[in-house]
Specification:
By secondary structure, the protein is mainly alpha-helical. The chain contains four helices and no strands. The radius of gyration is 16 Å and the shape is extended.
Length: about 80
């Protein structure tokens, strides 16, 4: 991973500093996905590659297709 700087309001920055490392990691992951969506939306090939990378990362983290289907079935 690489770091970038994004300007936010003072209130947001304060909440960020007071949040747990786990929460900051979850937010960082979601922001990475969202930024990539915005930056790649004009390039379908790059966006597909990005989605493939997300899938690989999720699978390496232990979320398999079977587990995903079980999670989705629980919500029905």
């Amino acid at each position: 991973m690489d770091r970038i700087v994004i300007e936010v309001s003072e209130e947001t920055a304060k909440k960020w500093r007071l949040s747990s490392p786990e929460k900051r990691e979850r937010i960082s992951q979601r922001m990475n996905i969202r930024l990539n969506q915005e930056l790649l939306k004009d390039s379908p090939d790059d966006f597909k590659k990005f989605l493939d990378e997300i899938g690989k990362t999720i699978e390496e983290s232990g979320l398999t297709e079977k587990i995903l289907q079980e999670i989705l079935a629980e919500n029905d």
